[in-house]
Fold each of these.
Amino acid sequence: MRYLLFFFLIFSSWITGFTNPRYQWISDNQFLTIIDGNLVQHNLPSNEKKVVVSAKQIQDATGVVSAEIEDFSLSTDKTQVLVFTNGVKVWRYKTKGEFWLFNLKTGSIKEIGMMFPPKSLQFAKIAPDGNKVAYVYNKNIYVDDVITNTTKQITTDGKNKVVNGTFDWVYEEEFNCRDGFRWSPDSKSIAYWQADATKIPDYTLVNLTDSLYPQLKRVEYPKIGQPISSVRIGIANVGGVDVKTKWMDIPGAANANYLVRMEWTPKTNEIIVQQLNRKQQETSIFICNPLNGNAKLTYVDYDSAWVDIQSSWDSDYNDGGWDWINEGAKFLWASEKDGWRHIYKVDHLGKEQLITNGDFDVMDIVKIDEAHEYLYFMASPGNATRKYLYRSKLDGSSKPERISPAAQPGTHTYSFSPNSTFAYHEFSNANTPPMAEWITLSDHKGINNTEVVDKAIRESKKSNALEFFTVKTVDGISIDGWIQKPANFDKTKKYPVLFYVYSEPAAQTVKDEFYTSYNPLYNGDLAADGYIYISLDNRGTPAPKGRDWRKAIYRNIGIVNIRDQAMAAMEVSKWSFIDTSRIAVWGWSGGGSATLNLMFQYPNIYKTGISIAAVASQLTYDNAYQERYMGQLQETRADYIKGSPITYAKNLKGNLLYIHGTGDDNVHYQNAELLLNELIKYNKQFQFMAYPNRSHSIDEGEGTTQHLSSLYTKFLKANCAPGAK
């Protein structure tokens, strides 16, 4: 999923064993959710709650005293629930663990995959008929028959670098693909991905601390210019004695294209597949016949920069899903072909019709309400820092109508009940802590006359509040930013500035949210200690400002984003209360790369920098991410070099702290040593910290977080002294 943004790890939960929304509805006014490790039924509008499956039941079943329900899914008839517990991380997320099937009518409990070791199953799913559960174990797919208590192995060729029903490293990281199989509507077949990474070279991680001799961990990691995995989709029959797989005959070489989405079509025995070419500029939709494998091209979309897959901008689709209307005759599709991200409906012949319309971006799809002929979505025309609920008629005949109240400026999220009567509404802004309430959608009022959000806004503290601003650079680019001023701010004095930067297509940092200026590494209070804290969103960040804003960075990572940041910082430096001798910048991952580039390319602006887990050379990162935004190496090699921090390391003048984990499987430690060599070559003095065996998040091991925070804080204070002058 691109360079992993650090704040994602802090404020988001780990994705777990299977994909499900926060709420799973059992009727129009009843849903199940997890509270304190228990599975709880919640009734609306009374707000009555009762525990359906308790953590104690899980603990008794597993024998693990601390076991809790971490995730769950319901059977089609709502009589059974499959719970996930004892999850363990695979790369970024907890996708391995244990699954238990509860019968909500009888109270019986059944372990899934009991013949396999604990904490070893992935992505278990109940078949639509409720009689079987499929899952992945050790790169193969298995099915447990819960009636006969038998287990059938569906695939047998999963081994080494060949995986069935899940994905290799780069598909998980860059396409949000983890769960790699789907039950057919009739429960007789399973459609699944098979990824063959045998042609991808291994990257070797070296562990020097856990044994007398080095331990080696090899990860198939396709760097720039290397082959991509050969991926195909097959459909296996699971009902017969002999399990056979029919492979879909999708045009295009399997090792030259990505297959990024796949689902069964409603009320048919066909599957729909999204293919993305290696350049990621053209995407094709195929409908495949499971009997003969024929793939019919239905729809094609193209962008001269890159095509965004749906999960890259709407996290509800992280592990699949497809939006169908008109009983499966049409599906929804997002495209930027008119300069904005809009939603179209497309039929099986590829004929499209625009649903949303106007100079704005659709930020999320919230709900398709066919009964009332509305599409609900998130957007924020005119203010890229906020997020509001809108709706448009499904036939495209209406102008977008804002649903979020005008008196609630900030960032909203919603989860709807099946009949769109109720919605779970979450809200925050820079001054208002996160608040949530159940509302009736018709009037956007809290059920039982509650006013949780309105009350929170009225009571929010305004002292030292975050302020938003816009500066125009010498290039004529308007840049949004936020500023947190010191306590007891005196505009007649001069203060040090700390810039927080990310700057790449994976993340927007300037948002009207409560935690937007939170710095988890600073040991203390930046405002109380007399620092001005600022963040800016340059062109190329995924702000809802239109296609041209986001894709100006194509073939220009390390150039356009860096110049925008620096030119905006120059405008900020003109403010009378800015001490231009004390300007610092920091970032993690893509932000770490930006920090290096800012320190090296604009050393007269930035005097101090803290760079964490940075890509020093773009030639070292994975091909799926880097080729998407920078083009293919054989065509654009000069752009890679031009945008890499290492190219400009000889220009370092200020104070640099560089930090990297030696066990980082995402942005490899190789980047650190390449950068160190270049700085040494030019006799550039700097401070460096390597964290042994730590991953990209640098959060493993006793004392690590405290040590990192202390290091960060001490370096900042020593080289960019706090307080007014």
Amino acid sequence: MNIVPPGDLQRLLAEEPFVRLLAHTLLAEEADEVVQQTWLHAMRAGGGVAEPRSWLARIAWNVAHNLRRSRRRRERHERDGIDAPVAVPSSAELLEREERRRQLVEAVDRLPPHLRAAVLLRYFEGLPPRRIASQLGLSVTAVWNQLRRALQLLREDLDGRHGGDRRAWLLPLVPLAGGAPGGPSPSPVPGGPGSEGLVVPKAKVVAVAAMLLASAGGITLWAAASCVNAPEPAAGGGVTASPAPPDAPPDAPADAGQPAVEALRTPVPLGGTAGGAALVVHLRHGDKTAAADVGVLVMPVRGDRRVDALRRRTDAKGEARFDGLPAGRFHVATDRCDVGKLVVTDGTKATELEYELPVGMTLKGLVVDRTGAPVANASLDLAPLGNTDIDAEVVAATGADGRFVVRVAETHAYLGARATGHASSLLQSVTGAAGETVELRVQLGAPAGTVSGTVVDADDRPVPRAILRIGAGQACGFNAVAGHPPAPATVHTDDEGKFVAVGINPGTQPVVARAAATAPWRGTCEVTANGTTTLRVQLGRGATIRGTVRDAAGAPVAGATVEVGDMLDVAHFVAATSADGAYELTGLAAGDIQVLVRHETAGRAERVVATTAGTAARGDLQLASGPQLRGRVVDETGAAVAKAALECRAFGKGIPQGMWLQRVRSDAEGNFVVPNCPVGARLTVEVRTSGIEPLTRSDVDPGAGPLELRVKHAVAASVTIRGMVADSTGKPLANVRVMADDGKGSRDPSLTKSTGPDGRFEFGPLPPGEWRVFAATPLHPTAARGPKELAANATWDVETVQLVEGGTVRALAEGDLADVVFVVVDAAGHSAGSFSNNGPTPLVSRPLAPGAYHLAVLAKTLTADAAPFSVEAGKQTTVSLQLRAGVRQQVDVVADALASPPQGATLRVHRGKDLVTVSTCSFRESKRATKELCLPPGEYRIAVFDGDRQLATAEVRVAATESAPVRIELR
């Protein structure tokens, strides 16, 4: 099996935003895991992909489809005992009910901060999803996905605390969810953000209990939730919201009532300050100490965190003051990526907000330079795992001894450092538990430069709160397996429009800038090591697109997602359509703008809208519908399988973005209907549900008649995998990301873990099958164990996974390298990684294990002979390649003769005895694969391998001009 170090997949950096967008489309609540596993399987399949978008898309589809199996297996007994008759509770039952209510509230408090925010706003504050979306800066669909994910984690949490016996906690919640009389009295939410003095009425726990039962047991208790009374108006002039309508379907955006307001102190006179109100935020930790030097962000509830937020740091008393706020609603958050609060100001009075931070992790450590010397006054950047809406924020600085402490970090985060005169560090992936302290050592890079300057508008006036990204790479949405390359510098202008960015690599660096209501600006700057570059950015007037989204029949579509730009880019714009199908996007660049709209059932559409600076353009879109696929899901005996989840996908040039996805469920009789299939496309259909083995059918024609999907019951999970990760000397390594993989992508998120202080890890229970274990850090090549076939109840002790110090290779080549991929081939002929000029470290590979390799080239129009080289630990090897023009040669690999073709195969191209290049192909969607190679004229031998097993060979003559495709049949 080919192993590619995770960072080497950054050669596909141009496709990484596409993978993230696809992951959110496929499985929004677990998009982070989909992205991570996509890279994992890309590593296993090898590098050198001629068409990476299609290849990565197919991997992502399979990953997303398999993620649910483990989760649903645990739910197969959910319905047991839920329909018990209502009886008058005894004293013992009331006490048990109170205990379960307390456990439920505590479970909510243990949720990850961004999920806890959605739950508190929805079920405790009573906000409808549309209001939550506005407050958190998300789409309505994203809010519903977060709520689903939160309920799933609540069930898993409560399962775990009751020994896996769901009945133990589920049954006592039935009378609570039904609003039974004699329930417990209100009590505080323990330990939650802003929880001091916060009382959770029984009625609000009812809503959570009802949703837990509805999602866990398949019964509807919305009627019980509808009995919740609307809270009284909050102090400070705010208005609380009534709950969303009780019959609101899980996917329907609700918009009832007004937003809830955080309980505030009694407003006091502003004290003569003119031009708006003042907001004073008081932050404290859970131990009641003042939270000093914490970044506080205040932004309008419908604002953009990147360009609309006011930023202040708390003083020694834990206070941050914001003056001049107009009347309105504001979202208050911190740079630690925690929950945040909602406040309302009337524009004339000062308001004070008490805010208790969640516990989180504590990160302690040392920042050093390349020689190991401590670096004073280095800034620490912190970013949450996978979040594409929150950039890395500066959260602390080192002292004179180079040491730092960051409290209240999320339990899954990325940390990096930058300092004047030094290139920024790699981002370290940090995983821990709330209350845990993690020790880190962060090393800065080679000498680097500083960029400072001013941002002005079209009238030469300074622009405050503008955001700038300087340097290559991404500043959010981090999902790498063990770490991530250095992030670009992300800075905001002050009140005078000035900024300073440090730790910028020497050379020509890209710059992107944006501010509210202005068009994005893109350019470059020249940076010198240990020097300062002055940059003046002038932002132009932005354009607006307004429009209406309609379905194929012409009816307005509510809740459709409209997007412009890449979700990882500063210039990313997103909106959800209102009830009348209307949307508006502002602050766009002038010119032709690609607008994409999608809706789960109504379809998708895209169009180019011509915009002009300072004006609004019309961008109406009509969603496309297509043929229907009908069928039935049955088990081995022919009995109907109800509520089975089906996901259908298709790829092709005629499909928007080259991909299509639709999800449906079978009804009580096992029947299903898939609407809006792409015209003329063949589908891959996958069915999953609790207690069955996943089933995939490829090459499905929607017009061929009803499709029967016959599934098999699954084997219970009973396998355990454990071991330890150590360095080359045998010393245990803490905080190393470890993954277990069965080759099918069927893993739940808990199966990506970090080693503990003793370097140990453990996975299970897992289903029987063939398993592998991978471990890696940003400084070590990936180490793998397995595959190993594990029978029921087996325990695999992999003992010690030893990570060795690696070296890197740097490609030296001249010419246009825009589409050139450099492929590292190990001595066995397997791809060991790849990289490009567009990666985070241009033309340099990630760490490789010491040994002998070849460096080959894959490109559309250029070619080069593979060059041999060796890797030494701790060193970088430079390899020169002579690029020259080549001829396109299509290769069709056909596996029709194989009953079960491999998921992927490797093509090794030789001229005589010399290796020319290596590529891969995939048979995940069909038994045929097409590859495009670029080779100089001559005679070649192409061998197709599955791992070390040769499947076929073909002699190929490449002429001076493109000739007919070569067909290679696998037998």
Amino acid sequence: MPRDSISHYRVLRKLGGGGMGVVYEAEDSKLGRRVALKFLPPDLEKDREALERFQREARSASALNHPNICTIYEVDESDGQPFIAMELLEGETLRERIGRKPLDSETLLELSIQTLSALEAAHAKGVVHRDIKPANLFVTNLGQAKILDFGLAKRDAASMAGDSGVPTLKEKEHLTSPGAAVGTVAYMSPEQVAGKELDGRTDLFSFGAVLYEMATGRPAFPGNTSGVIFHSILEKNPPPASRLNPDVPPRLEEIIAKALEKDRDVRYQHAADFRADLKRLRRDSSSTSGARLDTPPAAPWWKRKTTMAGAAALVVLAAVGGLLAARLLKPAPDQTVHSIAVLPFTGSTGNPDAEFFQDGISVGVTDALSELPGLKVMSSSAAQRSARKNSDPEKVGSDLKVDAVLTGRIEQRGDTIAVSAELVNAADSSQIWGQQYTEKLADAAALQQEIVRDVSEKLRVKLNVAEKDRLDRRPTENPEAYRFYILGRQKWIELSSENLQKAIYYFQQAIEKDPRYAAAYAGLSEAYETTAVLGGTGANDLLANARTAANQALAIDRESLDGQMALADIDRDQWKFAEAESEYKRVLEQNPNFTDAHVGYGIMLSSLGRFSEAIDQEQRALNSDPLNTLAIVYIGQIYAYQGDYDKCVAQAQRALDVDPTYLAANITLSNCYMGKGMTKESMDAIAHLIDLNGGPQAAAAIRQSYATGGMKAVLRMQLANVSDPYRLASAYAQLGDKDNAFLWLNKAYEVREVTLINLKVDWAFAPLHSDPRYADLVRRIGFPQ
């Protein structure tokens, strides 16, 4: 048993244990995050072979960085007791999830594809796991697969030469008692049993056995002793999966059989090929089940049976003309679309007051498409940034990693607008779909709706009744309300105090034209909340107005994701952390690709010191929006909070490569340099930031102040020129004046300043941490203890 604390970790509780390790939940006192600590059992601490395996696990897993592999933070030793600090996971093992029952099709495919993606990454790094089994595959509460326990891994083929590859029989799992031997030996490859040199194909056989068990609920190679199991692996094939579960489709059965080939030269050679076959199965089954929206839904994909009539028809067809049948049944080129980007529509409206429709309609189409199930849609900002660099669909598709690009051109002819829309295959620029539309200028909202409906039908998106009803529902019938809403959206994203005031005005005008316009209320809420975060006066009143507008949006449309997202941000800003977390999760359950929700949730998690989770959320945002500068910058901020200033600088530079004028990136760069002790570079970054905002004299004053008096002079200059309590407290804290620092922190608390959510992680306040007044303020704000 470990002590109450070991190194800089406080041990909280035991999570579980097995023959080769005991795992505890612990708190990292340096970074304020929860981790899992793995220790060798006491009876193995002096076992050289066990210790070597323990260290191998840390080395192998730490060499990998993949969302479906459990992250290793640290391997260390304290008072002769070795331990591994790793990512704390919440959920259950695949072994527990199966529970001797087949998994549903969606879960089986999703977990399998994720696991094979992780194996592909491991094999690319020369790491072969060698112990893939349900107990070593974890399923988080969010449905994410994680590979555990690289204790038997080898880094490359050379290091495996001459190694039998058979796990040591000293482990309890390998004893010949029923239920124990099955734990590992049942998933070995034939070459592993035979003691041959191993490569990545051994993991693919093992995962084939796991896949068989996921599909049937039964192990592929059962037996009461290791000998019986070894004989089955070497000499026998498992019963066809469909015999144990009649709902298993033939194609899945073929994939399992190929994975379980005893000759590794005819087995899957690469994890990528295995994964591609499963992805193709998911795609084909999905498109078959949702071929038309106006027909009754088909049965689940692995519950469909070939009817006798269908079989007879195929026989007749083959008899009449086999060659003709082959041509007719030959599949069309693969144009399945799982991800899409909508570029800003182009053209000339001939009317400057109506040009907003070009961007407005593309943004509206993006928002509507993003709510369709199973379709990943890049954010409007990502598409706009990519289009500014290059409007070629292939280049945009490559930059944003999407399957297809939707383009459009708008022309105005009097009070009529004509739109030509085209869906283009990003791989080769071939047209997937195209359509012409003509509408009255006043009916632009209906035009947006028609485009979304046609695209969804072309992509064969399978919708339930509620989703189809939502797609058919117009956000507003009032053209003027729609016009004001689009203008509000355009001003809101420009993020300046002046433009935010204009956005608030436009959203209010949209609501005045249509008091039942839920999206306009959500937009108004977001504009108020953003103004409060940027330091607008009266943050309390602004957030109160934001909450009223968000609640009104949800009262009109309880499924409004923008309304739910606005409430999450408001609760975060008002320090209601538990409520905000529930709301972010609720939004992401409905739309896992909602970029702003990932960004906002990540910001809150980082303020609570949950850095690993925060980075994960920001990375998920970048999956939907690879050029999202806020997500890029915030990852840099998190690295700074953790003291990794080199990575922080890299992230800030990455954001500046996307947008050299991005203010948050320049601020982060300055903070990173300050953390590295590069004060001159930090001041240069701040001066450059002020230059960007049209303040050359102030920039020159900062440079001069630093040159003559160093950082203290700059901080005193800050005291004379800023008014918000948080920044004043920050300057006083860095100057070592604790009393004034707490004076202004308490003033920030009294006015409920939003930036106080950064109190626990802001390096400027580190000198205050040992003061009892700091602990009292943390408690009053309501940070989780």
Amino acid sequence: MKVTPAELTRNCPMPKLIVVALMWAAAVNTFAQTQPPAEPGKAPDDNPSMIERMRPQGTPLKYELPPIDPKQVPPPTPLMPRESVSVPDRWRIVDAIVPLKPWYDPYNHNVLKGDKPFEPFAKWGPDWFLSLSGISDTLVETRRLPTPPGAQSSLRPGANDQFGRPRQTVLVETLILSIGVLKGNTTFKPPDYEFRFVPVFQVNQALISEVRGLRVDPREGKKRTDKHLAVQELFGDVHLRNVSVRYDFDSLRVGIQPFISDFRGFIFQDVPIGIRLFGIRDNNQIQYNLAYFRRLEKDTNSGLNDINQVPRRDHLLVANIYKQDFPVLGHTTQATIIHNINLESGPDYYDNNRFLIRPAVVGDVRPHNYRVTYLGINGDGHFGVWNLTSSFYLALGVDDRNPIAQQRQKIRAGFAAAELSRDFSWLRVRANALVASGDKNPFDGKATGFDAILENPQFAGADSSFFIRQAVPLIGGGGVALSGRNGILPSLRSSKDQGQSNFVNPGLTLFGFGADVDLLPEVRVLGNISKLNFVNTSVLGVLRNQAPPSKDLGIDVSMGIQYRPFMSQNVVFNASVAALLPGKGLKQLYEENKRGPQYSILMNLLLTY
């Protein structure tokens, strides 16, 4: 039986108001069940389906802006408040949010270090910078080297042995000031102009145990103090053009400038005078250099440039190209050609200590010219977890008259070196190998001993290694050294800095390993051990007028420590000890059975601003 609302109201004792409310709730529930459920996490009003049902149908209204006539827009009045506030340029904006630091603070924003434009240069433009830096390099070194007694005189009566007392001590203080002026926004592109001037002042003192080892006059004693002011850099650099939107560029640099031929300085590392065109391509994946250099004379006792003398007649033509990420990602390959033209067959040249340097006091002591071309392939980078640096060179040319061979020589020599290393957190282990060809017959018309132009190898321990660090004289073989200071090749030159290259030499093989250990962020320990051998000792037998000595040169052992108290390069203390444990060949040359191993101990403090 169907009951109407009127009957229900009439027969039910509940008030009519309650009945109406119940009926309204039932109607709302029925309507809600007919609607789509709301999306989780959203209110019903956010339900797109419900909004779509409630949205008016038809084309939305469009409001078009009326055309604006610039002539009818009134200009701002001087009294109108500005809608924007000017801010400093991007170099000085830091000053607005960071408290200013003293001008001498090297760790923070500093106008003297090129962090922001230099105000006195503002008349030239808004983006001229001044960059100043200074270095104090203090060295104390004691060593034991084969040292001959004075030829004309000796402080010891009856000292007629060719091997004198070997103790030597060197004290050196070098001050380097670098002044650079740059123009341009150098954050993403090279400077438009750069001018750099680097004067260097050095005071050095050497003490040895025999006379005539420091100066040709034995009356000047066993102590020498010298000072020298040099210009190590003086060049101008102009940005010629950009060749892409990513600032691939070409630039030209003229003047006294640094140059290194490869990643480790095996062939040529110097600051000659010259002109160099350089640039990058392919988003900095390719770099190139085309250059002409002329070598400057060096000060004898400091090894720095001597601009008071006429530049040497030693010319270099250089072309090289670098390709990044070749042959694999993370490895850079370089191809280089260096043509060295030496025309120093003129008058004899004596150094500041009045020793004859060119030609070398060896063989027939006759001046000569030579021309040699170095063809090289070099690499630096990593293959997976293994780091690899490698160099391969071929030297081809002609020596008009080698003083040892006493005839014209065709130069045919080779060189190869590699360092393989791997990092394990705080430890790096290294393996080194080097081969420089030697001359097996000085009189066959072929010079097959490899020599460099001016080497400074960063290899197999470098400064901490005895054989690389020290110049070992070849006593009884003329006025030449077995190897030069900061050099690895036994090239039998009168001087690495001032002498001529010599491709009639015994050559060298080196095999060794080492490790760099970071004990603390401030402390690093370095160790290295290398086995050294001559490739061929025929030329040594000729110079010493004896049977060729053994090829066994010896074992180079070195250990060093580096301390950086501020974990930066501003203060660096280095100390190292090295020894050359003589092999059979070295004992035959220097009677090392009687004299013991050669060694060196050095301490070095670098302060940089």
